[in-house]
Specification:
Shape: elongated
Helix content: 40-55%
Number of domains: 2
Protein name: Transposase
Organism: Sphaerisporangium dianthi
Low-confidence stretches: 215-220, 229-239
Structural class: alpha/beta
Mean pLDDT: 80
């Protein structure tokens, strides 16, 4: 898992704190107490020790204004032996601070890392072992229902990351597109880039085709704006020059999502183009380009 993937996963929980409860209840069969609020708390968990401890996210579930469960969310990219010492401290600190039960939820996109994270931690005291609750790829729910994806876009993103490379991934990616169509453009673009970055080549191309051509039945406004026109800051929607600028940005977004390096000279060439037909052709080529030369070939 790259640093960008790590930060994107953390953002999912910060944008939707209820995602922690959904994963615990649906994916890991944990009895989550009744609650009417889920909110992010500061991740600093330092007490008196001079060492600073910071969890990726801390979600507190409340009922009637009183905390009923604290969830320490950790996104784990690799095997880090130090976590086996710091994770128990996280739980003890947030439990003492919030005066409620606390659970450790570890999120991984790699099955091997997930197995390592799930290894019980022997605390030394007789009968006391901490067993992390781990949401690895196999534990993340498969979201194929578009209505469900719209209700919980962040869960649909996790589903696409965990299962988007499966053989029957089309319903998963189409549900994701429906979810991206109901959230703001900034987050939709970020989530789309994140998913594209994690998908294997075949699934990535399928998602890019969905976004670029709109050949599936439920094409969201987001997909149209993301690929076909874009939305530049301050532009007057509907003007020809604004549409050209949006299409040029769409070319750069697709190239970036595919990991194609773009020099400043090429970037300016793309942004400087005002011919709609040429930009449309570049959008189609960018969806499958391996190098920037493929765009102009």
């Amino acid at each position: 898992m790259s640093y960008l993937e790590h930060e994107a996963l953390i953002l999912l929980f910060k944008n939707r704190p209820a995602l922690a409860a959904e994963l615990l209840g649906q994916a890991l069969a944990v009895a989550v107490p009744d609650h009417n609020e889920a909110k992010i708390e500061p991740g600093e968990l330092t007490e008196c020790s001079p060492t600073e401890y910071r969890a990726d996210a801390v979600v507190v579930l409340s009922s009637g204004g009183e905390p009923v469960l604290a969830v320490v969310v950790e996104v784990q990219r690799g095997r880090d032996p130090d976590k086996r010492w710091s994770w128990p401290m996280y739980l003890a600190s947030v439990r003492a601070s919030k005066r409620c039960p606390a659970i450790l939820l570890v999120v991984c996109t790699d099955t091997g890392i997930a197995r390592w994270c799930a290894t019980p931690i022997d605390m030394g005291h007789p009968g006391w072992r901490l067993i992390p609750m781990v949401a690895g790829p196999k534990a993340v729910p498969v979201v194929t229902d578009r209505a469900a994806a719209v209700r919980a876009p962040e869960l649909a993103v996790l589903s696409a990351v965990a299962h988007g490379g499966d053989l029957e991934a089309e319903p998963i990616l189409e549900a994701l597109m429906a979810a991206l169509g109901v959230i703001d453009d900034e987050h939709a673009r970020l989530y789309a880039d994140f998913v594209l970055m994690t998908l294997p080549e075949a699934a990535r191309k399928h998602m890019e085709v969905l976004m670029a051509t709109g050949t599936y039945e439920y094409q969201s406004d987001f997909a149209k704006k993301y690929v076909a026109e874009g939305k530049a800051e301050g532009k007057v929607e509907g003007k020809a020059e604004g549409k050209a600028e949006g299409k040029a940005e769409a070319v750069l977004i697709l190239l970036g999502a595919r990991g194609v390096a773009v020099s400043e000279e090429v970037r300016q060439r793309i942004l400087g183009s005002t011919e709609a037909a040429r930009l449309d052709e570049w959008i189609q080529r960018a969806a499958t380009a391996q190098t920037v030369e493929d765009l102009f070939r």
